[in-house]
Amino acid sequence: MNDIFNTALKHLSAKNHSSSELASVLCKEFSEIPDVESLVQQTIERLKEIHLINDDFIASSQAQRYRHKGNRYIAQKLQQKGFDKAFIDNTLDSLPSELERGLIEARKKLRTLDGEEPKKRETKLLRFLSGRGFGANTCYQIIDELKTEQFENE
Q1: pLDDT (0 to 100) of residue 1
Q2: Over the stretch 100-127, which tens digit does the pLDDT of each residue have?
Q3: Higher-confidence residue: 148 or 47?
Q4: Residue 24 and residue 7 share a domain
Q5: Domain that holds residue 15
Q6: Looking at CB atoms within 10 Å, which of 39, 44, 74, 142 has the fewest?
Q7: Could you tell me the pTM of the whole model?
Q8: How far apart are CA 59 and CA 54, in angstroms?
């Protein structure tokens, strides 16, 4: 178990890992040891006790890092870290709404599309938002909101 713990520390010193991500790495690395899963689980529990692994912190920092992206993108990143759907949904709920975040990004992008004809600008904006992981409904809501703002400014 000492070898597993030391290897876990080595991995954590290089990069933050979620508990499931680290467990997966350790199980692969020590696959020749019988009953490796329970030893890895004990190691993970010990690391949590001494506050070297904190899944809540990792998830919220990932969500904050990618807050300029849509929920789809953030959920995918968290899924890659090994978080389950309920945990991901909870993390996404802690962020400002996808619509608010999307409007901020769309307004920034809109500044680069000055001079484009309206239909082309709308298409480019939809493609941009979709590429950032914003859902289709959110993308169309953003476009509608921007059109409303444009009419108010004229």
Answers
A1: 62
A2: 999 999 999 998 988 888 899 999 999 9
A3: 47
A4: yes
A5: 2-53
A6: 39
A7: 0.80
A8: 9
- Residue 45's pLDDT band, with cuts at 50, 70 and 90, is very high
Same domain for 76 and 60?
Answer: yes
- 40 with 16, same domain? yes
Average model confidence (pLDDT) for the chain?
90
Query: Does 104 lie in the same domain as 88?
Result: no
Last residue of a domain, one of 37, 53, 69: 53
Which residues, 6+ apart, have CB-to-CB distance to 110 below 8 Å?
Answer: 121, 125, 146
Amino acid at 53: I
Region of 53 on the Ramachandran plot (φ > 0 left; ψ -120 to 50 alpha; else beta): beta
What is the distance between the alpha carbons of residues 92 and 100, in angstroms, rounded to a whole number?
Answer: 13
Q: DSSP of the chain, one letter per residue?
A: -HHHHHHHHHHHHHS---HHHHHHHHHHHTTTSTTHHHHHHHHHHHHHHTTS--HHHHHHHHHHHTTTS-HHHHHHHHHHTT--HHHHHHHHHTSPPHHHHHHHHHHHHHHTTTTS-HHHHHHHHHHHHHHTT--HHHHHHHHHHHHHHHHHH-
